[in-house]
Amino acid sequence: MPPKGRIVVTGATGTVGREVMQRLARQGAPAVAAVRNPGRARSTLGTVPTIRFDFEDPATYDETFRGAEKLFLVRPPAIAAVWQSIFPALRAAQAAGVQHVVLLSLLGAEENPFVPHRWIEWYLQSLDMDWTFLRPSFFMQNLSTTHRAEIRDRDEIFVPAGEGATSFIDARDVAAVGARVLTGAGHARRAYALTGAEALTYAEVARILSDVLGRPIGYHDPSLLDFVRRQLGQRPLGFVLVMAGIYLTAQLGLAARTTLDVERLLGRPPTTFRQFAEDYRSVWAPSSSGS
Among the CATH numbers 2.40.10.240, 3.30.565.10, 3.90.25.10, 3.30.2310.40, which is that of 140-167+197-256+267-284? Predict the structure, then answer.
């Protein structure tokens, strides 16, 4: 029988969800990682409690949400038709007695009806549960994951962002906010715009990386077509188009907004990009395995 009042964490093997789960475990919170493959997840999560859960398999809903009080909701990137699987899961959570859903959304989602995050926000607002929306800016960790190889192997950042600035945020800060909201009071029916304290152009990012890594990292601003052509050799078209849209947002000057929400919630300034680069510098070392 699962403990009453537990916290269910979806996306628990991802960039933010993993950090949220580990923070909750260190705090002794009754949290469980809801994952598609618990056996495989343990290699990433260690000894934290896990349960099999799949948004696209309603047979997993009842056991996952039984006894749960709160849900940390991360939309799997592969799920675009959220009404087919995310919405039914939320109805099941409500029926099981979940009282509060903390959604990992997207900065500006409230003004963008074309992103699935907005549809999930809208649907949550129609249900009889409390909700909190975390709306982060572009993760610094995208440079240590998605763009890792080009920085490590070619000493370049190859994105069509022009001279636009982005208010990068460290995913660890987002996770710290998530854990704080899940274990604290006063966050119901609130939305937080989570950004770093500064907005940087990709040329400035390249200069910081050059300084930290001790070798020149260049910023190459390709056309959207050239960017898509290169990425298609490595990633699915849908993912590439989403990436192109994100960088176009920066190019148009729409990604530079900064807020004070992280500092207010955590009682400290957000992590700077330079600190992030220092912490992750080993992933861009030429001798890294790349896996």
Answer: 3.90.25.10
